[in-house]
Amino acid sequence: MEDKVKYEMEFPIQASPSLLYNYISTPSGLSEWYADNVNSRGELFTFIWDGSEEKAKLVSKKNGERVKFRWVADEDTSYYFEIRIQVDEITKDVSIMITDFAEEDEVNEGKMLWENMISDLKQVLGSV
């Protein structure tokens, strides 16, 4: 299997960090923008898109700040995806920081997917 490459993205967003955290850390919040439906049993989250399911384990979270998931299919690897809320201490501008992994020839596709999903999140939040 080909090694995946890590990539990071930043999306400025106009929303309160506490509201944002609900949208990135709860099944109901994630199902508003990330997937068609999201269920969780403890640390195991099931993401559903167009009838297909992908399972991910919540690897870590820091309240009000970030969540990190690892796809069950990648369980034996160091690959993960992280959604982090960053607040600029001086301007108080809020950004969502994405860290993800993709095979080298799929990085652009992955970035476009995140751009579309964050665009959906901004619409849900009324932060367009």
TrEMBL record:
SUPFAM superfamilies: Bet v1-like. InterPro entries: START-like_dom_sf, START_2. Pfam families: START_2 (PF19569). Residues 1-126 form the START-like domain. This is SRPBCC domain-containing protein. It comes from Antarcticibacterium flavum. The lineage of its organism: Bacteria, Pseudomonadati, Bacteroidota, Flavobacteriia, Flavobacteriales.
